[in-house]
Design goal:
Two copies of one chain form a homodimer.
Chain A lengths: L4 H13 L2 H7 L4 H15 L4 E4 L2 E4 L1 H32 L1 E6 L8 H11 L4 E6 L7 H5 L4 E6 L7 E9 L1 E6 L9 E3 H4 L3 E4 L6 H6 L11 E5 L3 H10 L4 E4 L2 H4 L5 E7 L4 E8 L6 H13 L2
Helix pairs in contact in A: 1-2, 1-3, 1-4, 2-3, 5-11
Chain B binds a DNA duplex (30 and 30 nucleotides) through helix 3.
DNA sequence: GACATCCATAACCACAGGTTATCGATACTG
DNA sequence: CAGTATCGATAACCTGTGGTTATGGATGTC
């Protein structure tokens, strides 16, 4: 009998959440679809995995057994994928690097150029990461390294090489009243709605709404976005304002968006990030060295 | 990224076979369907797994990596299934036992009755196994124990409790010329086609074509069957003759099939079989004890 | 030169698996 | 106690995945 690992992930989510509706949300599925998935898994296994009640879904004995065993299956699959990816990188001479928004700004190209000098037969493939789960690609092995903004979720599980620091500014719709002013402080913005990253990103989200500079005052969230495009649109729409690295004014200049200086918020730091242990040798080591040589 | 373990099994088969067409046959699929599966797996992983040529499919580097890692994934899934099955058996009080053809003949019912005395609240569920892969259910955990004929594939990976020994006879179409004779020897049968088990069963197949009693003479295979029904039909059809346990004359008596004594072939042995370590305690231990008490 | 072998492609079909809308049952809540 | 929110199941519907047969093109083989 076979399974789609997807069913296992769904199952794990339901087991954890104890509630179909909420699990469905987390999985970006409708609740009936998830109902079907769980029923399918149960019929494939020939065992009842959950006790349904008005209070939600509770694991049965067999359900507990699966909940205990499923992570090992998923982990072994992740391992397999990483192995394939590593072999593929070796064979096709491609180093995959994820980046967030403007990556390392003006340093991005020089770093890649420096790497190509060390490894002329290799290519670097950049792929954009959403800020919903910026390290996703690193976990799964889809990507060898990433240009990240600090802090990011589960940062201590990775090696981090800081590259540059830049001040942050504030982005808002061009017709926003505050856009009249040349420069602002956090005090001016305490009542404004902010465009934020998904709640799951924890410290990352907090950093970009400057939670520490609000003196405990709660934030109004005007919209939640995952990618630069949604983010820009939301700002231009007037859904809220947002903190941004100063370089955004160069890389994301638009007539309907104004960027203004702001005082009293910590700067933003860009780093190169890779899984612990992976950077010891091979092309990734050269990429890291190239980046280190160009770091501030 | 997710996979269906099915794709992994297909992949493993192609890798092993080195040939799409033959792998498709083994998987009971059309060749284009298998082509699609492999392409899908490749696109999901973003890596080329095979080098296609006129000589077949050869693994690439990433392909080798996956071939090395896939068995672990499949094994962990099998483990998970066994865990679920065990918990389910515990919860629903069902012991599942597979059997081959006539199981343990007249001992089957007494063994089950003796088990029920020890575990009155448990049920025994018997399910027929094909001889294509008689231990399949044990590997996957679908079944807790099985009544088997010795020898069977990978026999040393299981615990084996011999239950009874019976002579073998020869089965043939009722209108077969040799059916006139009361008793036969292997020498009479050397030119006859035999009905055999699938080639993958190795020693099991050899045992039932009495490969060791032919003095090295090759066998003609009249048909390959997996189940008693096909087997009986093939014999009645005149596709060939077949060795059978003597009890077949009782359990599979048909007007169009004749069973005759044969000398010079080893007897057949029936045993109870279960995964190593599983019989130490719990209901399976009681079932084993019940069987042991009734063994010859 | 005819043929066999092997993988890819095309055209087609069924159904798995998703969606929205709705239901029935239960537990909070004012 | 009525009204409402919550939870999972069900129905009706639609699309895309994944199967099938038939066929093609390339390359060895007798």
């Amino acid at each position: 009998m076979d399974v789609d690992t997807r069913l296992l992930r769904s199952f794990a989510t339901v087991a954890e959440e104890g509630n179909l509706t909420r699990a469905a949300e987390r999985l970006y599925l409708s609740q009936p679809a998830l109902t079907k998935q769980i029923r399918q898994l149960e019929s494939q296994l020939g065992a009842v995995l959950f006790e349904r009640s008005k209070h939600g879904m509770a694991l049965t004995g067999p359900g507990e057994a699966l909940a205990a065993a499923a992570p090992a299956v998923l982990a072994s699959w992740d391992t397999a994928r990483r192995a394939v990816r590593a072999a593929d990188a070796e064979a096709s001479r491609v180093l995959r690097v994820s980046f967030l928004a403007s990556a390392a700004n003006e340093k991005t190209q020089p770093i890649i150029a420096a790497f190509r000098e060390r490894r002329p037969d290799w290519r670097v493939e950049l792929r954009q990461a959403g800020w919903g789960d910026p390290v996703a690609g690193l976990v799964s092995g889809d990507v060898d390294a990433g240009f990240m903004r600090l802090p990011f979720p589960r940062q201590d599980e990775y090696e981090v090489l800081p590259l540059l620091t830049e001040p942050r500014c504030i982005a808002m719709a061009a017709n926003h009243p505050l856009a009249q002013r040349e420069s602002l402080t956090m005090a001016d913005l305490l009542d404004e709605p902010f465009i934020a990253a998904p709640a799951a990103t924890g410290a990352f989200r907090d950093h970009w709404i400057a939670a520490d500079a609000r003196g405990g005052r709660p934030v109004r969230i005007g919209a939640v976005t995952e990618h630069p495009d949604d983010w820009l649109t939301a700002i231009a729409n007037g859904d809220g304002i947002a903190l941004a690295p100063a370089s955004a004014a160069r890389y994301y200049a638009r007539p309907d968006i104004a960027y203004r200086d702001i005082s009293g918020v910590a700067p933003s730091e860009v780093a190169l990030v890779w899984p612990k242990g992976a950077g010891a040798s091979g092309p990734l080591a050269d990429f890291i060295a190239a980046a280190a040589a160009l770091a501030d």
